[in-house]
């Protein structure tokens, strides 16, 4: 609870909230933006929250969406994904960091959507603290949304894409309320990483999100990680079988949240045997998650790249980028990169991609001294993240700037490198949270100057759409290397000629 001296108050459409001020930053944490999705509202589109009369305490993070951690013993991921499910009904909540003082008004707003493969993560993860953004004149917001079975499973009788609908509801709340926290509702930038960025790639083209944000920043994300309802029904049927319930809304409502989480772990496992390849012969998640947004509804009427080609989202400025060695996060701590043989590398890719052998050969599988694990890691870095992000940038008809995170983490003997999620502590300027003996950033303090410069790029873009390098266009294909601090022509990709949406 705040003391009298550090308490700050703000008004929302539901009622007053009481936050806390410290060192020039006001924090309002755990504010509900929609009704609790439990009881009769479980598996229902987000509904308005009931109003309150007395000031609601907003000095501590609220509950999180239900999720279970996936740990690497050699790497501490809790700063990136949180420490696990914090139970409570009102988990459709958000957190706000804003410059303290009554004169704060008309500031740019940045709304962050966390990653976690649509089955994990939280808005309160330590790396996502918005203090530095607020100190630099930005109103920063982080949001929770439904995950896994509750948010991204097209159960018959349930609205599709509930997690995306939650994000849209949160953005609607920001539009209606953020002026009371010093923000400009007409200057909102939505930014996110991994599944959060993939979701933003969908929201850019969604008719339901139109007008809710002016700019978008996609960190290791794009618009190709979506599935048809038909393909996702395989997950519905398998989960129902694991849970011992009918494959409809009544069946899934009869299962407890915890039972659902345990069933998710069974279905998410590589040994589940589920073939998630779509009509094009590709699993767009390449085995990383069985839970993806679906297209063909009112949220995502057609696959995002098709919508972009028709001009959807052209009014939105886009900053998009990837990390140079994305898949190292998954394959280095597990030993896959160092130990996997060539035959097994082919087998693993063949389960998610048609023509796997040809792809791996283009990445040097047959070359002497090139391990199968290293080849698979390079190929999947391009297939899962780097190439689809470039396809998104190319298809977007509005202003688009592309970056690459090229700073290499010294963690795990220098092998972790420019892996997935290594950019997040730099963007939020929260390096200390991910530094340590088993920290993602390694034990040696990372370059503070790089965090300052990266966050400045994000803030300048959010403020007015500016970027210190040219747009990404077919003729020039300029990519800004964040650590080098300069733009370079894009590299060529071995799979560019054969990859199809």
TrEMBL record:
Origin superkingdom: Bacteria
Enzyme class at the top of the EC tree: hydrolase
Keyword entries, A-Z: Hydrolase
Pfam families reported for this sequence: COesterase
EC numbers for this chain: 3.1.1.-
Domain called Carboxylesterase type B: residue spans: 9-484
MF annotations from Gene Ontology: hydrolase activity
Annotated family: Belongs to the type-B carboxylesterase/lipase family.
Protein name: Carboxylic ester hydrolase
Origin organism lineage: Bacteria, Pseudomonadati, Pseudomonadota, Alphaproteobacteria, Caulobacterales
């Amino acid at each position: 609870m705040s003391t009298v001296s550090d308490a700050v108050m703000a008004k929302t459409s539901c009622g007053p909230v009481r936050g806390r001020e410290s060192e020039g930053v006001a924090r309002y944490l755990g504010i509900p933006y929609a009704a609790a999705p439990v009881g009769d509202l479980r598996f229902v589109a987000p509904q308005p929250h009931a109003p309150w009369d007395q000031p609601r305490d907003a000095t501590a993070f609220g509950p999180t969406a239900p999720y279970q951690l996936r740990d690497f013993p050699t790497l501490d991921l809790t700063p990136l994904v949180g420490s696990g499910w914090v139970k409570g009904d009102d988990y459709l909540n958000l957190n706000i960091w804003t410059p303290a003082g009554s004169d704060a008004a008309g500031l740019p707003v940045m709304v962050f959507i966390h990653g976690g493969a649509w089955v994990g993560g939280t808005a309160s993860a330590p790396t996502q603290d918005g203090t530095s953004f607020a100190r630099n004149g930005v109103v920063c917001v982080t949001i929770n949304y439904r995950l896994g079975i509750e948010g991204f499973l097209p159960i018959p009788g349930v609205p599709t894409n509930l997690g995306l609908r939650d994000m849209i509801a949160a953005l609607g709340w920001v539009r209606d309320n953020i002026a009371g926290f010093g923000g400009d509702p007409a200057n909102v930038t939505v930014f996110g990483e991994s599944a959060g960025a993939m979701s933003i790639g969908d929201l850019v083209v969604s008719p339901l999100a139109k007008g809710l944000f002016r700019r978008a920043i996609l960190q290791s994300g794009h618009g190709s990680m979506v599935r048809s309802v038909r393909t996702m029904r395989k997950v519905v049927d398998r989960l129902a079988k694991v849970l011992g319930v009918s494959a409809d809304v009544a069946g899934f409502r009869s299962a407890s949240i915890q039972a659902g989480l345990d069933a998710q772990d069974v279905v998410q496992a590589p040994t589940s045997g589920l073939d998630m390849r779509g009509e094009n012969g590709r699993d767009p998640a390449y085995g990383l998650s069985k839970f993806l947004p679906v297209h063909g509804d009112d949220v995502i009427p057609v696959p995002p790249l098709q919508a972009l080609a028709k001009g959807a989202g052209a009014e939105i400025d886009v900053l998009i980028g990837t990390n140079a060695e994305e898949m190292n996060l998954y394959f280095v701590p597990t030993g896959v990169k160092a130990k996997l043989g060539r035959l097994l590398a082919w087998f693993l890719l063949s389960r998610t991609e048609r023509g796997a052998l040809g792809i791996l050969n283009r990445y040097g599988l047959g070359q002497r001294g090139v391990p199968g694990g290293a080849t698979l890691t390079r190929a999947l870095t391009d297939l899962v993240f780097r190439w689809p992000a470039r396809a998104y940038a190319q298809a977007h008809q509005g202003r688009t700037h592309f970056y690459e995170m090229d700073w290499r983490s010294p963690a795990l003997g220098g092998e972790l490198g420019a892996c997935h999620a290594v950019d997040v502590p730099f963007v939020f300027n929260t390096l200390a949270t991910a530094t340590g003996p088993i920290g993602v950033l390694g034990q040696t303090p990372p370059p503070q100057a790089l965090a300052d410069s990266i966050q400045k790029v994000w803030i300048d873009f959010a403020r007015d759409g500016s970027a210190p390098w040219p747009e990404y266009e077919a003729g020039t294909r300029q990519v800004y290397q964040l650590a080098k601090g300069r733009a370079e022509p894009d590299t060529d990709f071995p799979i560019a000629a054969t990859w199809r949406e």
